[in-house]
Write a structure and sequence with these properties.
This protein is of the alpha+beta class and about 150 residues long. The protein has one domain: 2-Layer Sandwich (HIT family, subunit A). Helix content is about 40%, strand content about 15%. The chain has a 5-stranded antiparallel β-sheet, with helices on one face. The structure holds adenosine monophosphate (AMP). Adenosine monophosphate binds near residues 46, 48, 72 and 129.
């Protein structure tokens, strides 16, 4: 009985918290926050499994992978969102991200079977970390469109 009560309390405590975290989105337009987790990873103050790095780009494994391969690819510059990046990044920085995405896909062996690249901006985009990032997903079928269409029907 006692164990059952503890179990229920734990569940009610964790479920809403988890749900909250998933919906904890960030604004597209705001000053850059130097304390965001990706800024800390860039400064090597927070751990990450890095798979690629050059002068302009860092890529590391997502801590909660949605697919067998789930890499986050980020510019080293302080860009909050895609809006910020498209307005302010230099041509070299923009080119570097695109080239890195291709190189990393090959490096992670998802080039043959295919992959998906996704980037969320702001609340409606579902962005939760205020440093521009691209999700590189592969290792099995991704099918964003399919699941979004199913959600719309349901
Ligand atoms: P988004 O919701 O598009 O902003 O994506 C943020 C992503 O960052 C999520 O997929 C998280 O799982 C991932 N994430 C958050 N913190 C870390 C971390 N410390 N290391 C690696 N990935 C993280």
């Amino acid at each position: 009985m006692f164990k059952a009560i503890i179990f229920c309390i734990t569940l009610t405590f964790f479920i809403p918290l988890d749900g909250l975290a998933a919906n904890n989105t960030v604004a597209t337009i705001a000053p850059y926050d130097d304390n965001n987790i990706f800024a800390k990873i860039l400064r090597k103050e927070a751990p990450a499994t890095i798979v690629f790095e050059n002068e302009y780009v860092l890529a590391f494994e997502d801590i909660h992978p949605m697919k067998p391969v789930h890499i986050l690819v980020i510019p080293k510059g302080k860009y909050r969102s895609m809006l910020d990046f498209s307005e302010k990044a230099s041509d070299i920085e923009i080119t570097a991200i695109i080239r890195a995405l291709g190189s990393i896909a090959s490096k992670m062996n998802i080039d043959q079977d295919g992959f998906s690249i996704m980037s969320n901006s702001g609340h409606n985009g579902g962005q939760t970390v205020p440093h521009l990032h691209f999700h590189l997903l592969g290792g099995e079928k991704v099918a964003w469109e399919e699941s979004l269409r199913k959600q719309k029907k349901g």
